[in-house]
């Protein structure tokens, strides 16, 4: 992430030099120096980041952290100066004359501050440069098969097909059993069918394939798919079910919602999927909503926990999903590397040995195979390119470590530096949220993450980033536009967990879930603050904040009084994001 932070600042300074020659009068030399020196140090950060991940030396970890913070300091210094320039008054008259005089004085102060800040950054950069050799950090450029620039020119981007059967390998027999249990006319009782397995094993993929099966679709009258997840509220879940089955409650209370849903479900044979159930309480709270009128209705549960499956329906044996064998693993991997091609013939003989080594390291876990296949799909189809990925895995993997997490981290580290920031941004959204592509592209644009090159618009550049993340299987396309573009996307919860962990470690974001956000309780000055629950008070005066996110998830009323008048203190704020909130009036600080 340090490489991404420095790369972002270098690109930002370059754009500033190209577009703001007049406004940079007096500090242009400092900006040019920062761009040149940070660009030089960026070359060493890939090696340093790799050493940090492996945990070779605490001193290297400290060096990387210092380098990242220095890049943030450089960005803050220039952005603060530009903020003071943008405040220049445009009015005429006597008052305007006085305002301009005050502004000129402020500008001199701002310019002096930039000089002082850059002087401090120069001293720190010199110190870091000297310690680099001591720590054995070298300029490794584009080694180990990773990319710090854009995708290989030999690779044509292909948006993944929107089909659950594309990713379903090894579960055909299990699917047949589940479909039979669903449509069995000899069992008129309402039954609960559970799929159990660790994260990334393919429970949701199998459930979707069953849910969309033709025989299943013609056997039921009412359908609903609801994601439960770890941080659920019964009220929110009931509202989702109500929407799916088109129930009409008298009011928005839990009692009225429960009654309306139950009455609606009594009118037909229903199939309800509760995806990603973590707690027994989730089922016991919902049990009364699903009536048993002896018409063969069914509920499907996916969960990581066997106790949840057993309490849901003790009379039916849960389906415990297994890991894939080598043959199945190879097929799934090659489907991702060579989309829309025959997996029996697509891989040349000279690539088979490398493919076998890569597949073996995934341990039969579908998510690891899919993500690794997405990574390899961006590489040239040569033995050398694939073998570099193998060697990279050998270097990164730690004995006894979590292979899945290490593969996910490997795929993240392989991203171009601008895509790393784009990917980490998915940590700003709630778990299992269906994210509109236009929303995430606009947020990326507001933050300045998107590269502008080859005559493309910002929107086109943002779409390219989404497509590449989807091809690499780091995000999932959940709905296409009419022209086959990305309409909605989602991120797997394991990938989101890794995303948030990496983002927190690198001050990219901080998530808060208490009723009071207090600056004293925050571990560091994060660039973005994410609030997932209603807060009473915001005592957070981080003047370097770039993004403030409110995402409560249940159309609550947002009272800006909770901000305690601090919104105006976030002088460098680029994004104020509110989702599913009722706002009666914007605060006066927003012009």
UniProtKB/TrEMBL annotation:
Family: Belongs to the disease resistance NB-LRR family.
PANTHER family: DISEASE RESISTANCE PROTEIN RP, DISEASE RESISTANCE PROTEIN RPM1
Pfam families attached to this UniProt entry: NB-ARC, Rx_N, WHD_DRP
InterPro entries: Apaf_helical, Disease_R_plants, NB-ARC, P-loop_NTPase, RX-like_CC, Rx_N, WH-like_DNA-bd_sf, WHD_DRP
Family annotation (Gene3D superfamilies): 1.20.5.4130, Helical domain of apoptotic protease-activating factors (1.10.8.430), P-loop containing nucleotide triphosphate hydrolases (3.40.50.300), Winged helix-like DNA-binding domain superfamily/Winged helix DNA-binding domain (1.10.10.10)
CDD domains reported in the protein's UniProt record: RX-CC_like (cd14798)
Chain ranges of the NB-ARC domain: 172-341
Disease resistance protein winged helix domain: residues covered: 429-498
UniProtKB keywords: Leucine-rich repeat, Nucleotide-binding, Plant defense, Repeat
Protein name: Disease resistance protein RPP8-like isoform X2
Domain of life per record: Eukaryota
Domain Disease resistance N-terminal residue range list: 5-95
GO annotation terms (biological process): defense response to bacterium; innate immune response-activating signaling pathway; plant-type hypersensitive response
UniProt key word Signal: no
Gene Ontology molecular function: any one: ADP binding
């Amino acid at each position: 992430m340090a490489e991404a932070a420095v790369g972002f600042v270098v690109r930002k300074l370059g754009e500033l030099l190209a577009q703001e020659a007049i406004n940079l009068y007096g500090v242009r030399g400092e900006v040019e120096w920062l761009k040149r020196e940070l660009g030089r140090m960026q070359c060493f950060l890939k090696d340093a980041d790799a050493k940090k991940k492996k945990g070779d030396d605490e001193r290297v970890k400290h060096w990387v952290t210092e380098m990242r913070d220095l890049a943030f300091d450089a960005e803050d210094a220039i952005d603060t100066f530009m903020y003071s320039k943008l405040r220049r008054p445009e009015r005429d008259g006597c008052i305007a004359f006085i305002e301009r005089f005050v502004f000129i004085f402020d500008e001199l102060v701002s310019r002096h501050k930039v000089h002082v800040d850059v002087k401090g950054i120069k001293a720190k950069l010199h110190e870091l440069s000297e310690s680099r050799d001591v720590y054995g950090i070298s300029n490794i450029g584009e080694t180990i098969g990773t990319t710090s620039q854009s995708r290989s020119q030999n690779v044509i981007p292909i948006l993944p097909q929107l089909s659950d059967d594309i990713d379903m390998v090894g579960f055909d027999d299990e699917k047949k059993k589940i479909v039979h249990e669903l449509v069995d006319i000899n069992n008129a009782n309402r039954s609960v069918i559970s799929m159990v397995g660790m994260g990334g094993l393919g429970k949701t993929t199998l459930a979707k394939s069953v849910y969309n099966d033709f025989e299943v679709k013609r056997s039921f009258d009412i359908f609903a798919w609801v994601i439960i997840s770890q941080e659920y509220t019964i009220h929110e879940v009931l509202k989702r079910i109500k929407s799916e089955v088109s129930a009409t409650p008298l009011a928005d209370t839990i009692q009225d919602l429960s009654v309306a849903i139950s009455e609606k479900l009594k009118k037909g044979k229903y199939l309800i999927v509760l995806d990603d159930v973590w707690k027994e309480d989730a089922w016991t709270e919902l049990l009364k909503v699903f009536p048993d009128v002896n018409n063969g209705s069914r509920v499907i549960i996916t969960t990581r926990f066997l106790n949840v499956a057993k309490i849901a329906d003790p009379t039916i044996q849960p389906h415990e999903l297994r890991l894939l064998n080598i043959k199945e693993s190879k097929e799934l991997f090659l489907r991702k590397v060579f989309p829309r091609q025959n997996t029996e013939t697509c891989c040349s003989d000279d690539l088979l040995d490398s493919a076998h080594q890569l597949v073996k390291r995934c341990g039969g876990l579908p998510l690891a195979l899919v993500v690794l296949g997405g990574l390899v799909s961006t590489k040239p189809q040569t033995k050398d390119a694939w073998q570099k990925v193998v060697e990279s895995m050998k270097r990164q993997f730690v004995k006894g470590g979590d292979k899945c997490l290490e593969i996910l981290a490997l795929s993240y580290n392989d991203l171009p530096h601008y895509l790393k920031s784009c990917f980490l941004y998915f940590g700003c959204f709630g778990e299992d949220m269906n994210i509109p592509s236009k929303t995430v592209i606009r947020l990326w644009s507001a933050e300045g993450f998107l590269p502008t090159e080859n005559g493309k618009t910002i929107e086109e550049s943002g779409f390219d980033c989404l497509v590449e993340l989807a091809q690499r299987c780091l995000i999932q396309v959940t709905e296409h536009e009419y022209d086959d573009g990305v309409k909605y996307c989602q991120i797997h919860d394991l990938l989101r967990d890794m995303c948030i962990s990496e983002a927190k470690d690198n001050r990219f974001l901080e998530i808060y879930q208490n009723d009071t956000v207090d600056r004293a309780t925050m571990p560091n000055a994060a660039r973005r603050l994410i609030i997932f629950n209603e807060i009473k008070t915001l005592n957070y005066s981080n003047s370097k904040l770039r993004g403030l996110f409110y995402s409560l998830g249940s159309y609550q009323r947002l009272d800006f009084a909770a901000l305690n008048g601090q919104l105006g203190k976030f002088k460098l704020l680029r994004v104020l994001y509110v989702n599913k909130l009722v706002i009666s009036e914007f605060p006066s600080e927003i012009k």
